[in-house]
Amino acid sequence: MSNAQVIQRMQTMLGPTRARLGRLRLGRALREALVLGSFVAPLTLGSTLLVGLLVRPRGMLTQAQLAVILCCTLLSAAVCLILKCGRLLIHRSSWQEAAQVLDAVGNPHDLIVTAYDLAQQDRNSIFARMAVDRGVAAMEAGRNKPFHLAAPSPAAGRIGLGLLATVLLAIVVAVVPRAGGEIVTDAGTSPADSPGPKDASTTSLQAQRTPPKVSSVSRPSAQVVSTSRQLEAREVLPSVLPTSLARSGASQNQAGLTRQAFSAQSPSANAASPQETPPSENRQASTPRAAPRPASSPTSEEESSPTPTDTRQRAGGSGAPDSESRLKASLLSGETDPDSEEENQDDLRQEKQQQRALAGTGGQPLLSDRLAAPSRELGLSGKKSDLPPEGRGGPSDLKRSRATATILSGLPVPVHVKGMKQQGKSKSQARALPLGASDTESRPVVEARGPGHEGQVRRYAPDPAWQAVLDRYFRSLRESESNQQSE
Amino acid sequence: MQEPLCTPEEWKEGQAAIDAFKEAFVTLRDQVRTQFIGQGALVDDLLSALFAGGHVLLEGVPGLGKTMLVRTLSQAVQLGYERIQCTPDLMPADIVGCMTLIETDHGGHQLTYQQGPVVSNFVLVDEINRATPRTQSALLEAMQEGQVTVGTRTVPLPQPNIFIATQNPVEQEGTYPLPEAQIDRFMVKLLVRYPDPADYHAIIDNTTGVTSPAIQAVVTGEKILAMRRWVRQVEISRPVLDYAVRLVVATQPEHTSLDLVKESVALGVSPRGVQSLVVMGKVKALLDGRTSVSCKDLQSVALATLRHRVLLSYRAAAQRITQDQVVEAVLQSTPTTGCSA
Known about the structure:
The complex is a heterodimer.
Chain A (H helix, E strand, L loop, with lengths): L2 H52 L8 H28 L4 H12 L4 H11 L4 H17 L13 H20 L14 H4 L6 H10 L9 H30 L3 H14 L2 H4 L7 H8 L13 H4 L4 H9 L2 H15 L8 H17 L38 H6 L34 H6 L2 E3 L8 E3 L5 H23 L1
Antiparallel strand pairs in A: 1-2
Helix pairs in contact in A: 1-2, 1-3, 1-5, 1-6, 3-4, 4-5, 8-9, 8-12, 9-10, 9-12, 9-15, 15-16
Chain B lengths: L7 H28 L4 H13 L3 E4 L6 H11 E2 L2 E5 L6 H5 E7 L5 E7 L6 E5 L6 H4 L2 H7 L1 E4 L2 E4 L5 E6 L12 H5 L3 E4 L8 H9 L10 E2 H13 L4 H13 L8 H6 E3 L3 H17 L7 H12 L4 E2 L1 H5 L4 H11 L8
Parallel strand pairs in B: 1-9, 1-10, 2-11, 3-6, 6-9
Antiparallel strand pairs in B: 4-5, 7-8, 12-13
């Protein structure tokens, strides 16, 4: 009898053990996959849900986001399954492993695995053949012994917790409102349902996010939606326009006229309390309701940059009431086309009109007249700045005479009193006093350059936290300025 | 049932070798035990190392019978016996021998090699840690290669050859710790512990009377060599060998994943340690009547063969972590072949 025959015989006897080993390993892998999946699946579901709720539209889920959440969750579960069970498909139980299992059951001296290995190595010494024979005999005696694999701890609590978390998150996903069109706002109920300050603007914002379902419904239902939007606009406008006008303080008369005009058309406007809402929200609230302006409307006059005097005339004249009436008419018309670019243009026009109306009142500078900012630099004595002394948002002459701080707070800003030459120690950062020897050791020092050598000057080095605040402030300031210039 | 792979004659021959080995081992053990009472495991390990062909380091506090054990064993085997009593002034030439000018019969002089006590079958190196490192290093070549070199002369040691050294771990003054190269050459390091209280009566009777039991030489050198050959023929399968390698690698701080080893071991077990582990495992298997080594055999000899090859760090010494603790932790953390399923 050769070693090959011995191997064949041993494999025949090891066959059932190997098959059972494969089944036990599969079961163990499935349990491990369940343990892993009970952690990964709710984690994936929760994270994707959180991300979906944070991106636009915030607090809602679109159909695409819902699909991504479901796909990611299912994919994570599948990955857990593949990680734990895929190895079994690639690496099947070997004969040697089956022999090891049998040895672990009844042979403390590894007789079977040694016999199988020695037969495979074709060892022909007497001791090797004796070992093989002993192993075969041991296998025949113990091949029917039941065996079990060392299973991992049940971790039932962890699995249950994971499944519970998954179910709860799935309920949350089901409860979260959809932005895909399921919620068609009812003009009569939506504002009442919305809690707190989310009254008119929020309702109109939801209406803006809700795409029109006119194309997917029949013609009468589309008319119903249009009518509901008209009603909604009648409720929204009285609360929006007076508020913005009141904030600007431009003209109480105009506000009164507008309020009277609206109260004549919509009685519910008086009931709405004028709340403090920022102009940007007002713009958002009024934008989707704005009807496209007819082509014949005089836009060229508005788009041309007016002079300050024109602005003052328009603010105190009839320009503002006209725009409001047009806005009111457009909002009440109910003809909306959210995808058109004309809405954006109209939004810009309205913004310009509001700015013109508010210009000159001291409340807000007119940003759309594209005037350069006035010179706020103190400058050295007897030296004029290149920028014009007057302009958008500049200080008055009185303030300029008292000097305006151009540098950061906390700095030793010298006071320049008009008519008194070199009253302060220095006039700007560039003209700091020379430091003493002790100061140069403890503070960062730069050397002044230029024709007028003034020795070492002190550089202000604020704390890191304070420096971050300053950096953030100036960065946002420059961004806003650049945005205004681009507009 | 199909016919076995081994013919009946082969089976009979192999079984006869096993029986002869066991008989020689038991005979020698019984002979030693007539003089050395108790400490059965110590005697078994000592004889296993003798039949495995390795050297033994006995460590124990004074008065436990280390020297007497070795002397008794030397009397039980028919081998040449030499004793080296290590002292601080012992020189290497005192061990390996030297070239001496000898007067010839014709009145002249001749430079001849005067061999040292190391050239013998059975060498007891008593109190080895009292010798200076330069003297200890004189044993390196003899223990590893079975030869000594004096000048241009290389003298092979007689076979079978075994070095049994004793040392006292307590005394520190006037002693020199063995260098790692020296320690690694010992196949096993056996700790001589206090005997059981039940053995004290027999010990006192044997040693305080007028006569002491006579020791007979029951095993010859040729038989020891034959038994060493049988030990080498014992098979070891690849999975068991993998387990031995895993055990040794697990003691190496740069390769192990065991925190205790990483923190406490400065130097792990060398490949010579695996050799000693496997050979001692073969002796255990043969004593158990098997012709192949199992993982249990390796586990049973792991402490004796690995403990002295683990060099502990200063941190471990400060925390009073012993080498045995490290080896036992390695044994517990390393899965055997049967557990890998």
